Amino acid sequence: MQEDSPVQNETTPDTTQTEPPRRAGRRNRLIVLSAAALVALGLGGIAVATTGNDRPAPTAVSLDAQSRVEAAGRADRSARESSTPVAPSTSPTASPSAASASPTPTKTASAKAKPKPKKTTKPTPAWVDPMPGAAVTSCYGQRWGTLHAGIDLALPSGTPIRAAAAGTVTQAGDASDGYGNSVFIDHGNGYLTHYAHQSRIAVTVGQAVKAGQVIGYEGATGDATGPHLHFEVHQGMWNQIDPAPFMRARGVDLGC
Q1: Mind listing the pLDDT tens digit for each residue in 44-86?
Q2: CA atoms within 13 A on the CB side of 144
Q3: Residues of the chain under the 50 pLDDT cut
């Protein structure tokens, strides 16, 4: 006898039964995309995607998600409204003073190298004072019953004596007749000059000298009461003439 197997009434859970509603965050994962780029282009929207679920997603949006969307929208609008166009930067220009200033011309080598003026020496006169600055102690003429045939010029002993003009030395040494150490210079024009009473002679016979050249030094050799230069002018040998007018005619004033 076949025994009937007891029928087990098992209750299968009804999958269609709706569970109590839960928060949307727990039941579904909502992906809310707030595209700032779409908003900047003038399009706004919120894309909500749901994961696989046969049941329609609830239309309600959680307060947290909604707050984030609105905050993103406000932030984007405020950025657009507050932004102002920035004027393109212009390249700096030179200041008017710098632009108007003319460039400094470069000095050429010829401009820099200016020729230096040549130093010109004043030419020595043909005739000069044989002892400049000396005091006249005696002029040409009669003195103590005899002819004083020259001009006496006095300065301290050892003062240089200079040739009155260019010429050639014809005598240099003791000239006797009380002249002491003397120098005679032939000037080649028929005139000679005589320099007596020298302490020391600086030239030799036959030597050519220039006007103003030192030929000796003042002294008191021969018949002299003190150091001085006895200066004579001869028109031909031993033909003494007055030196004062002769030298004056040649631009030299001896003070007589």
Answers
A1: 444 344 444 445 555 554 456 666 666 666 655 444 544 455 5
A2: 3
A3: 1-27, 31-32, 34-54, 61-62, 77-79, 81-83, 92, 94, 96-100
Structure tokens at 220: 């008191």
Inter-CA distances, 247 with 4, 165, 184, 229, Å: 188, 10, 17, 16
Neighbours of 8 (CB within 10 A): 5
- Rounded to whole angstroms, the Cα distance separating 182 from 192 reads 13
What is the spatial distance between Cα 109 and Cα 222, in angstroms, rounded to a whole number?
67
> How far is the C-alpha of 186 from the C-alpha of 163, rounded, in Å?
11
Which pLDDT score, from 0 to 100, does residue 248 have? 97
**Vertex 171 angle, CA 198 and 215, to 5°:** 45
What token pair was written down for 248?
């004056």
pLDDT score for 181: 98
Say if CB 217 and CB 202 are below 8 A apart.
yes
Is 186 within 8 Å of 149 (Cβ atoms)?
Answer: no
Sign (positive/negative) of CA torsion 223, 226, 231, 232?
Answer: negative
Residue 150 one-letter amino acid: G
Q: Phi and psi (nearest 5°) for 133?
A: 85, 0
Q: Tokens in use for 14? A: 């009804």
